[in-house]
Amino acid sequence: MAWSCAMSTGIMEFSVKSFKGFANEAGKAFTRVVQYTEEKLGTSEKTEFDVHFETLAERADKTKHWTERIVARTDAILQPNPNAKVEDYLYEKLERKREKQTNFEALGQDMMDAGSEFGAGTAYGSTLIKVGQTQQKLGQAEKEFIHSVSTGFIRPLRGFLEGDMKTIQKEKKILESKRLDLDACKSRLRKAKSVEAQGNAEQELRVIQSEYDRQVEITTLLLEGISSSHANQLKYLSEFVEAQMAYFAKCQNIVSDLERQLSSMSVIISSTGTTGTFQNSYSANCLSPTSFTDDKRKRARVLYDYDALDKSELSLLANEVIYVTSELGQDPDWVIGEHGLLKGKVPLAYLEFLS
C-alpha cells in the first residue's frame, strides 16, 4: 500500500514538472513570436550580428543552395528517368541491389537479336551484331561512369548536406532563438518601472547574454568550417572531371574500334541511309563465291571471332588465315573454309580475301 502511494506521488510530481516545463517552453515561444512581430513592425530593437558573422552566414547559405542544385543536376544526368529514380530510391532503402540494363545495353541487345534473325552470314546481319556488341560495351562504360560519379562526387556532397550543413542550420536556428530571447529581455528591462523589476530583468539579461554569446561562438566556428568543406568539394570536383575524361576517352576508343572493323569490312553507310549504298559498297569490296570458283582455294583473313552454331560450320578466330573454297548451289553468303584438318561453312562477311 505504501509502495502504491509513493508510486502515485512520484507520478504526480513528474506530471507537475512536465507541465511546468511545457508551460515554460510555451511561454518562451510566445515571447519570441511577440519579439519577432515587434521587430517586423519596427516597434522593437533588434541585436545585429557583426559583419564577419553575416559574411560567413551568407557564404554558408550560398554553399547550401548551390550544392543542392549541383547534386540535383548531376543526378538528373546520371538518371534522367524520374520513375527509375523512385525505383532506385526504394531499392536503396530496402538495401537490395539489382542489375538493370542501360539504354545502350538494351539497344545493343536488340541489334544483336536482329542480326541473328537476319543471319550472321549476311552483311547486314553481321554488321548489326558488331554494332550491337559495341552498344553493350558503351553501356558497360556508362555503368562504370555512373558508379564512379555516384561514389566519388554525389555521395560525399550529399553527406556534406546531410551532416555538416544540417548541423549549421540547426545551430543557426538555436542562435536566432537566443537572439530573440536576448532582445525580449532587453525590452523588459527598458519597460521595468520598479527597482525590483529592474534588478530581476538585469539578472535575467546577464544569463541570457552569456548564453547568446556562447551560441554565437559555436555557430561562428561551424560557419568558418565551410572553408574546409570547399576544399573537400574541390577535390570531389576534380574526381568528377577525371571520371568524365576516362568515360569519354573509353567511349571514343570503343567507337573507333567499331569504325575500324566496319572499314575493314568495307561497309559504308550512306548519309541518306539507303540500303542500296550499303549493299553495293559491301558487294564491291568483298569477293562473292562465284568470283573464285575457277580457283579451288583462296586465302582469307578472319576479321572477327565466330562460334560455329552446328557441326557443319567452322569456328573462327580474328586475324587467323584460312583457305576458302566455294561449292555450286551454296548460299551466296556462306563459303567453305579450311583450317588445318578442320573444314566447314563460314560466313562470308567475316572474311577479308588476300591477294
How would you describe what is shown here?
With 355 residues, the chain is an alpha+beta fold. Strand 3 (334-339) and strand 4 form a beta hairpin. The chain has a 5-stranded antiparallel β-sheet with strand order 4-3-2-1-5, with no helix packed on it. Helix 1 packs across helix 5 and helix 5 (123-191) runs antiparallel to helix 7. Helices cover 69% and strands 7% of the residues.
Strand order of the largest sheet: 4-3-2-1-5
Major sheet description: 5 strands, antiparallel
Proportion of helical residues: 55-70%
Contiguous uncertain segments of 5+ residues: 266-294
Total number of helical segments?
8
Compose a concise summary of this entry.
The chain is α+β, with helices and mostly antiparallel strands. It is 69% helix and 7% strand.
Itemize the secondary structure elements and their pairings.
Blueprint: H1 2-41, H2 51-78, H3 82-93, H4 103-118, H5 123-191, H6 195-224, H7 226-264, H8 275-285, E1 298-302, E2 321-325, E3 334-339, E4 342-347, E5 351-353
Antiparallel strand pairs: 1-2, 1-5, 2-3, 3-4
Which features does this protein show?
5 strands, 5-stranded antiparallel sheet, alpha+beta, 8 helices, 355 residues, 69% helix
